[in-house]
Design a protein that fits this description.
By secondary structure, the chain is α/β, with parallel strands linked by helices. The longest helix has 30 residues. The protein has 23 helices and 7 strands. It is globular, with a radius of gyration of 26 Å. It starts with 14 loop residues before the first helix and ends in a 13-residue tail after the last strand. It has a 5-stranded mixed beta sheet with strand order 4-3-5-7-6, sandwiched between helices. A hairpin with a 2-residue loop joins strand 1 and strand 2.
Length: about 550
């Protein structure tokens, strides 16, 4: 079959238009990613775990075998730890340095999404899609958290951008090598199992689009070398660590095969992502039907047709793969947001044209009406449930939602009047205000409800080198990081009692306040609360076990914070 070179989408564009659009996209993404990035303390349990593992990796100079809390941590490959360690070495150990790379990778992912969008959906669709991606809730949140999900999203987006250029058939066979190397590097970010499954996407695209000539690139010398490098990268870390640690293969099996087929961690029902993905892409999920209807209008432009096909396969196969998996987390949807954003941006851009069909235009109006109703309902619910909203969020959150609701209604009116650009600007402005406001609210909320930092600050002056730190039914990742001390975790009082609490002054136990009664009953000892992060049942406290209980013993409560 002859190689057919494809032209870019026929949207008229100039260098100035591209530069302005790219400046807006990068500027907005950088603002949301880096604004007050290090102000909020780490939220338990994931962020401090990654930051502490990188700290111990630097301290021990062991760059291949991660450790956390003095114990092996073979759950994730070391690539993300290397990035955090490099930021800690450059900027010092802080929340900002641990979150620096996810924020930077978020900006890079938005940029690459825009670049790929120009190739597959045109300049206007790429610009709209990149803006939708930037302000989507899941993407905005994950670009500010010290977790490897954004690294994986960037590598997958880069890999499919390279594959798009490869399938165009312009003779650059080395792109096959680059594509496979990037997927191999992705195996060092989270899981090699995902990298292997992602090969289904380009193979399906080649078969559906009948571009069998692309397969020749993978049997040429560059492609063969790429396949060899891909396999070595997928199994390389496990082989290296397996020579040093005997439990490597059992951990690898639990984190890949068992998690996918058996739900060893984070088991969720089959419909979890059917709800999770639209929620992660709100409010733009209400426009997803536009992308499905808009794809039917692209039959005359082969490039747009093939571009939409690749995006749809990327999204559909990825969604099916994660839905089939028994272990589910909402962060797994992050690599699927770039194709979803571009397809939705393309649908909005097509619906904005005067030549589209009336049903499609009517569908877009219905979507905007649903958006206005959704935002209004959110505002009403936050006001009605105001007493149950934490004090740091109320009444500021309803005020922010009111702004977005007004913007949504105005945008709906403008859209119905065919002022597409104005409607999108108004809506994006309202969502930007919501994001910036929520970022400012995030600092006290995380410190008060989600972080070990306040309690660690209180107990730091009262512990010494002889104090042994323990935890009861609470994963002490934040305490390990902020105190930089090992904390031994116990899931029941039987093992905690056997640990030896005779010299109770040398033991400090961390737990949630709601666990206080069960701890006292299980230990059969008085419990003295020496530090408390708050007075609610969910707040963390630090206690010491006193004398054996008698009939008059009681649990002491703190008199203040």
């Amino acid at each position: 079959m002859e190689e057919v070179k494809e032209q870019r989408p026929t949207n008229v564009r100039s260098a100035t238009q591209v530069a302005v659009a790219l400046f807006v996209v990068v500027g907005l993404s950088s603002t949301l990613s880096f604004y007050r990035l290090g102000e909020a303390p780490f939220s338990d349990p994931d962020e401090p775990r990654y930051a502490q593992t990188a700290r111990e990796m630097r301290r021990d100079h062991d760059w291949m075998v991660p450790h956390f809390n003095g114990e092996l941590r073979l759950v994730k490959p070391p690539l993300f730890y290397w990035l955090i360690a490099s930021a800690q070495a450059t900027f010092g150990e802080s929340e900002w340095s641990a979150r620096f790379w996810p924020a930077l990778l978020g900006v890079a992912t938005v940029t690459l999404t825009f670049v790929m969008g120009m190739e597959v959906v045109g300049l206007r669709g790429a610009f709209v899609g990149s803006l939708l991606l930037t302000v989507s809730p899941l993407f905005a949140a994950m670009s500010r958290l010290a977790t490897p999900d954004m690294l994986q999203a960037l590598l997958i987006t880069t890999a499919f951008l390279v594959f798009w250029h490869l399938q165009k058939g312009d003779g650059r066979q080395w792109l096959a090598l680059l594509f496979l190397i990037i997927l191999g590097i992705n195996a060092w970010a989270k899981s090699p199992f995902i990298s292997v499954l992602l090969l289904i996407v380009p193979l399906t695209f080649i078969l559906v689009s009948r571009k069998l000539h692309v397969l020749k690139s993978f049997v040429m010398p560059a492609g063969v070398v790429g396949l060899v490098v891909f396999v070595l990268l997928c199994i390389g870390w496990q082989l290296v660590v397996g020579l040093r640690e005997s439990e490597t293969m059992s951990v690898f099996r639990r984190e890949t095969i068992s998690r996918f087929f058996e739900g060893a961690d984070h088991p969720e029902p089959w419909w979890y992502f059917f709800v999770g993905l639209p929620a992660a892409f709100l409010p733009w999920a209400l426009f997803m039907p536009l992308s499905l209807c808009g794809m039917r209008l692209l039959s005359r432009d082969k490039t747009l047709q093939h571009g939409s096909m690749l995006l749809a396969l990327w999204l559909g196969i990825g969604f099916a793969m994660h839905t089939k998996s028994q272990g589910k987390l909402i962060g797994y949807m992050l690599p699927l947001l770039p194709p979803l954003a571009l397809l939705t941006g393309q649908g909005i851009e097509l619906a904005a044209k005067k030549c589209v069909s009336r049903p499609l235009r009517a569908l877009s109006v219905v979507s905007f009406i649903m958006l206005a109703l959704f935002l209004s309902a959110s505002f009403t619910a936050s006001c009605v449930l105001g007493e149950k909203v934490p004090e740091v969020l109320f009444p500021t959150l309803p005020f922010l939602l009111a702004i977005v609701s007004i913007c949504g209604i105005v945008a709906c009116i403008l859209w119905c009047l065919r002022s597409t650009s104005a409607s999108l600007v108004v809506l994006l402005g309202g969502l930007l205000a919501l994001h910036v406001g929520c970022i400012r609210l995030c600092d006290p909320f995380v410190a008060r409800h989600c972080s070990s930092f306040p309690l660690a600050t209180q107990v730091r002056p009262v512990i010494d080198a002889e104090t042994r730190l323990l935890s009861y039914k609470y994963h002490p990742t934040g305490m390990v990081y902020y105190l930089d001390r090992p904390v031994r975790h116990f899931r029941n009082t039987h093992k905690l009692s056997q640990f030896g609490l005779a010299d109770s002054n040398n033991h400090l136990i961390f737990l949630r306040r709601r666990r206080l009664a069960s701890l006292t009953q299980g230990l059969g000892r008085n419990v003295d609360v020496v530090a408390s992060a708050g007075d609610t049942e969910k707040d963390l406290i630090a206690v010491v076990a006193g004398s054996m209980l008698d009939e008059s013993a009681h649990i002491e409560r703190p008199t203040g914070h």
